[in-house]
Amino acid sequence: MKAPRRLITVVAIAAATVTVLTGCVFKGSPDQASPGPSRTPVTDGVSEDLMPFYGQELEWESCKGADSGSYDCTTVRAPRDWNDPSAGEIELAVVRRAAGSGDALGSLLVNPGGPGASGYDLIADSARFAVGSVLADAYDVIGFDPRGVGRSSAVACFDAAGTDAYFFDIPAAPRGTPEWEAELTARNEQFAAACDENSGGILPFITTEFAARDMDLLRAVLGDEKLNYLGYSYGTFLGATYAKLYPENVGRLVLDGAIDPSVSSLDVSATQAVGFESALRAFMAACLEEEDCPFRGSVDDAMTDLGTLLASVDASPLPASDGRRLGADSLMTAIIAALYSQDNWPILRQALSQTLAGDPQTAFLLADFYYARTPDGQYSDNSSEAFRAYNCMDYPVENDPEAEAASKARLAVEAPTVAPYWEGVDACAVWPYPPTGTRGEITADGAAPIVVVGTTNDPATPYEWSESLADQLASGVLVTREGEGHTGFQKGNSCVDDAVEAFFIDDTVPEDGLVCR
């Protein structure tokens, strides 16, 4: 399947290393403590047809978070179709951690990316980990599941067994043959039909534009005149879309690990593949310095040997104890999952060492983390389903054989290890609803300064996208983190952290072009 449909993701990126080892620890049951206060909704200028939503009074109940903070939970009603607010409702799940100082500067909404990652879980698992102690003390930190995601009105497709088969079953036909393409297309058709049948009629309305409109609703019912927002990865596209729609409501926005809204799905695919190839080479350079590295020689030698390993499991998949078989697609998913954070490199070394020895267990651990699959074979969230729904509605259909051929030629040169397992059958070609999204530059004229953070060797959202978004935004300010891994804030770089925190706390706009080494 094409990379934009599968690989633009965060999978709780900020917490990737911790989550892969420990899992979620949030307890969703109500507590006995009194919930925090509700503020008066902000309804100035709201049209009559939207007043039932913007004017709603929230009912909070206390709920337990993973730390000692004060957590409250609520549900917000939103229009199912923002173009026709009378045509039904959806629900948005929201969790709030009250400012540690007891005197909040306002609300700070956070989105971990995806599309499809749960902002609710990110904040409930630990708001201080997600945004840092400084911001958790200063703001009421708000986690929410966008429409289609998690605890909100959610996309649902296969059951666990069907999801296993969809992600992990290996086609009978050889890769790249017409029979292989036909088998994958049939699977995609079955998946799309299941999503349509089981999602309660919401699939046509799972779009980034509608999710951004939901954020303005959240801002208003939380009682904030302006939106303060921290968005990671896909969350940068969500935040930029908000700024385009509501420039006058932009407060302090930080967009970390940016997606370029003007880039086509084909270009996204190619650029991401090159980004992961670059990150993989950086991993190999570090691996070769370790005693437990399973590769030898130069980086080029190691990449060639990894390519041989991928081809080997593609031809002869490795059986696991649970009955699944590790083929090249699942091994590549495991590699990609680990490359989001440099902290995951040791477990990637282990996974590749064991795979070379014929043991796929650690590789499956990484792949399962990517797909939110638990050890008992269940799935802890619907991030993959929501991911598909958003991307199939957001990205316009492309059918340009010349451009596809040029992209394939580029990948053969710039991403030779990743390329054979990157391109394939477009799963969105059989989605039951046509896409409504467009691709184009976002300028957000009239918005307050918006800070864009980019990391120079970010594999998932390559640095050039952060540069481009900062240039597009009329009020964009670029902060650069030199280093490895996805996103830049809360990654151990005090220069980035200080700049972001000063912006949110004191409204001190960083110097445009600040480079943090």
Automatic annotation (TrEMBL):
PANTHER family xrefs: 2-SUCCINYL-6-HYDROXY-2,4-CYCLOHEXADIENE-1-CARBOXYLATE SYNTHASE, TRIPEPTIDYL AMINOPEPTIDASE
Ranges where the Peptidase S33 tripeptidyl aminopeptidase-like C-terminal domain occurs: 424-516
Signal peptide: 1-22
UniProtKB keywords: Hydrolase, Signal
Assigned protein family: Belongs to the peptidase S33 family.
Keyword Signal included in the entry's annotation: yes
Pfam families registered for this protein in UniProt: Abhydrolase_4
Organism of provenance: Microbacterium paludicola
Record's protein name: Pimeloyl-ACP methyl ester carboxylesterase
